[in-house]
Amino acid sequence: MPAHIRRIGIPMLVNQSTTPDLDQILTNAIRQELSARGRFTVTHDTTGVDAVLTGTIMPVQTNLTGLTEARQAQRYIVTVLANIEFRELPANTMYWSNAAFRASEEYEVPTGTGATDQTLVFQADRQALERLARTFARSLIASIFEGM
Asked: Global pTM?
């Protein structure tokens, strides 16, 4: 990361998925992950910053990976795809972009939910969505730092 970049704007990601609040959860996780690096001031503003990180969340992919003996869903892998860009301002110089950035998390379906898609699973286990957001944010920030 160039030394002159100290203040980074991260506006709310655009949510094109059907998962409610995914934009807020992922955006907050990204902000927290970048803030934890200690060198940056992170804000939701896009003015008065040295760089801006923007993105659009694509539809979430959910794949069944395990069944119980009774042939009920037991494990899923959920993948979040997003188009992410990191630009220096005011010159609007592209430092890093990935039109199909992805992160996945596998987890067990809470027993008795009968969940069949990610929305129901996330309603039954909100922690699964939080874990996915942390995985996404860690991987994203590491990819940006390594790619620069």
From this structure: 0.85
